[in-house]
Amino acid sequence: MVRTGGVLKFAALIFAFLLAVFLAFQLLEINLDFKLSSVISRSMPVNEVSAKPVRYKCGLSKSCPLGHFAFKMTSGAASVVGPRICLEDKLLMSGVKNNVGRGINLALVDGKTGDVIKTDFFDMWAGDVAPLIKFLKEIDEGTIVMMASFDDPSTKLNDEARKLISDLGSSAVSNLGFRDNWIFVGGKGIKTKSPFEQHIKNSADTNKFEGWPEVLEMEGCVPQRQD
User: Fold this and answer.
1) SS3 47
2) CA 148, CA 75: separation in Å to the nearest integer?
3) Rounded to 5°, angle at Cα 85 from 80 and 90
4) What does pTM read for this prediction?
5) H-only helix segments in the chain
6) What pLDDT tens digit does each residue of the chain (227 aa) get?
7) Domain ILEI/PANDER spans what residues (predicted)?
């Protein structure tokens, strides 16, 4: 009876020892697995989904090819919000910059470097067309000319001014009317009509605002002057 009790105690000790060894190995394996997982997770690249989306110059939908300037512009909204002109990620004209006004807004850009030469606006409702004509005649060859309407771009616009703007590549300026919206990118010395132009008529049937048409927006890539 004593011998049997001793055997049972010995067996119980052996079992306890083996259980302790087993549990120790299990804990060691879990710890090693945790450390290994931690190392692996630190070495893995950041998930591509969390990366920021690509942003192109001036917020364009795609990048421009080499040898081109990226631009984006909007016309004015009624008589409330002024136009906005961006070139190569630089804001040239806007209400925030406080350099826009009623009428025709213009930005002159060096066709070779993309540098801004001058910005100005001319009131075509209560102003005089003579300063605009003088401004247009003084534009140097090879200059990129960007124009955007705000409120009314045409009441004081005469045939001479329209011809000067047409020579910059505009197709729509001859039909520009009272409170029409219009945006245009052309150049001094251009040989053909510019592909960068939008025009919408002021019409009670289609106007988005009472008395004014909807805002126009245009983006694109202007070829850089190479000579």
Assistant:
1) coil
2) 5
3) 130
4) 0.76
5) 2-43, 130-137, 159-166
6) 445 556 566 665 665 565 554 544 454 444 444 443 444 444 445 554 456 778 899 999 899 999 999 999 999 998 899 999 999 999 999 999 999 999 999 999 999 999 999 999 999 999 999 999 999 999 999 999 999 999 999 999 999 999 999 999 999 999 999 999 999 999 999 999 999 999 999 998 888 888 889 999 999 999 999 87
7) 102-189
